Automatic annotation (TrEMBL):
InterPro entries: P-loop_NTPase. This is Zinc ribbon domain-containing protein. It comes from Undibacterium rivi.
């Protein structure tokens, strides 16, 4: 190739076949995508979710013994976000948009197979490719009311199931896999909940939906019980993986030309592998910048590029507080937590001089409430903290372990030996044996009392039109004029103990207290998967968990109305 493309969704199908690295983590993801049952492919941006899905789609299409695999991408969902403010039936239009995208995946499959679509269009007048594409295009432009009312609102999940079954029989496949890419609709919670309602309905005896999501901001809603209804498949290559260097090297070999490969020495490749922290897209961006920058020595270029990497990641993380207004305080406090975790690792550099000491352990204690857990998950979502398996250091001394992003450790001089830096520093350091003990902290030793108190949900948008507030003192919505819920009122609502939620028995409250860290209405609201958290309590299954969440929601609505 004359130049390489970082994003897999921009690669043509004929290039997808030759550009996916062959490591075990990607092989396992492909096996899971082709297997029976619903799956959630989980990883930060750039870890290869789209690449694995499109690769799986292509190879299944070419393999008669594989299930029928269809691919749909939902990355343009934010184009429909304005409808939430101006259309009372926005959720119904979103439903039609999702169904239309799924039906179009059937036509895309036939096109990629170079098969005529007449057999499909003849089965149902709603299976009309031209109308489907027009409906999707118009809805994404915030219009299409007439097309929706005359055509789109008639589309249902059953039509999708009928269409995919027709394809399954035509091509003599035993099962169907639906690959739903970019399904982490994290910037429009109402759409996200509606999406997973559809996802749940797609799961049948012959159909297995697989969705790609983020580890931090994906909220599944009260009726989708992720732990029971689907299996999580992590897709983020760990720097501790024995195949790490080989897999990252394979990515570069497959995506760069021989001339580009020759322009980078082996030590520089190794430095950037670790600075990318297991994110293929970041690795390719680092290499591209190195090839593009002309001025300076090789080491100066490396240092500058890695420093720029930390700025980009930090900016992406900070943007979560802007995009997810209700979590802005959690995001801001999370940044302080991360900076101190990095500083703790850097300060411990000399404790075991010949060891690799990059693991930060955080004790599981009473300070780790659902708000704190959500804070940590946002750091994981952006790729700033890599979660490792928890370990126990004795009775009541269980620790979650994380690796802070190596680019930030690099900026703190963790890998540097002596006064100057070298491209050999990082790869040589990562070859050392792992330190016997990680750096261990509690949340209260990382954050001071005021910062712990700042772990709270922030004011919601206007309850009438969902417009974000300009400031905390605002009394009326600047868009529709509705009187806004006051700061103290909202905070008091979030502080309500679960004991004060009508309809939850004392016995059930006792079980929740014994087995979970959910104590208040705000804890339930902050939980990424409140249903799964509630089901940790005895005799609480998916149905009862949904009832509890419904009662909490009703209490909030009545409190703030």
């Amino acid at each position: 190739m004359a130049e390489f493309e970082e994003r897999a969704d921009q690669l043509s199908l004929n290039l997808i076949d030759t550009t996916l690295a062959d490591g075990e983590i990607f092989k396992n993801a492909r096996r899971k995508l082709l297997s029976t049952g619903a799956k959630l492919l989980v990883g930060p941006r750039g870890t290869g979710k789209t690449h694995v899905m499109r690769y799986t789609y292509l190879h299944a299409m070419q393999t008669d013994s594989a299930p029928l695999v269809l691919y749909a991408n939902f990355s343009r969902y934010l184009n429909l976000e304005p409808l939430l403010k101006k259309a009372p039936d926005a959720l119904k239009r979103f439903h039609s948009w999702v169904v239309a995208k799924l039906l179009l995946s059937c036509f895309d499959f036939l096109s990629d197979k170079k098969e005529a679509s007449l057999f499909l269009t003849g089965k149902n007048p709603l299976f009309d490719e031209i109308k489907l594409r027009e409906l999707v295009s118009l809805l994404e432009r915030g219009s299409g009311t007439e097309q929706y009312e005359t055509y789109g609102q008639n589309l249902t999940v059953d039509h999708v199931l009928d269409a995919v079954d027709l394809l399954r029989k035509k091509f003599s496949r035993k099962r169907v896999v639906l690959l739903l890419d970019d399904a982490a609709l994290s910037l429009a919670d109402q759409y996200l909940i509606a999406f997973f309602e559809i996802y749940r309905l797609l799961k049948t005896e012959f159909v297995a939906p697989k969705a790609s999501v983020y580890p931090g901001s994906t909220q599944y809603g009260p009726t989708f019980h992720a732990s029971h209804e689907s299996e999580e498949v992590p897709l983020w290559l760990s720097v501790e993986d024995a195949e790490y260097s080989q897999i990252m090297g394979d990515i570069a070999t497959r995506r760069l030309t021989s001339t580009e490969l020759a322009g980078i020495n082996s030590d520089t490749f190794e430095s950037f592998k670790f600075a990318a922290f297991g994110i293929p897209r970041a690795y390719l961006r680092l290499l591209r910048e190195y090839l593009d920058v002309q001025a300076g020595t090789s080491q100066q270029k490396i240092n500058k590029i890695i420093e720029r990497q930390t700025e980009l990641i930090g900016a992406e993380y900070d943007s979560l507080g802007i995009k997810l207004k209700q979590f802005s305080s959690l995001v801001a406090t999370g940044r302080k937590f991360f900076e101190r975790a990095v500083a703790s690792v850097a300060a411990a550099k000399g404790l075991e001089p010949s060891a690799r000491n990059i693991i930060f352990a955080l004790k599981q204690d009473s300070d780790r409430n659902p708000l704190a857990e959500r804070m940590l998950r946002f750091l994981i979502e952006v790729g700033m903290l890599y979660p490792l398996q928890a370990v126990s250091h004795g009775v009541n001394r269980k620790y979650d372990r994380f690796i802070p992003h190596l680019a930030f450790l690099h900026a703190q001089g963790v890998f540097r030996e002596g006064r100057g830096s070298s491209s050999k520093d990082v790869p040589q350091y990562m070859q050392r044996p792992l330190a016997k003990q990680p750096i261990r902290r509690t949340l209260s030793t990382v954050l001071d009392p005021d910062e712990l108190a700042s772990l709270k949900l922030d004011l919601p948008p206007c309850q009438a039109c969902n417009t974000a507030r300009i400031n905390e003192s605002q009394r009326f919505c600047h868009n529709c004029g509705t009187e806004l819920v006051g700061s103290s009122l909202f905070e008091e609502c979030m502080k309500l103990p679960l004991e004060e939620v009508p309809g939850i028995s004392d016995t059930l409250i006792a079980r929740i207290h014994q087995s979970t860290k959910l104590r208040t209405v705000g804890h339930v609201y902050a939980a990424q998967n409140a249903s799964a958290d509630l089901q940790q309590a005895s005799y609480v299954g998916p149905v009862r968990a949904g009832e509890i969440i419904g009662k909490v929601t009703l209490t909030v609505n009545e409190f703030l109305s």
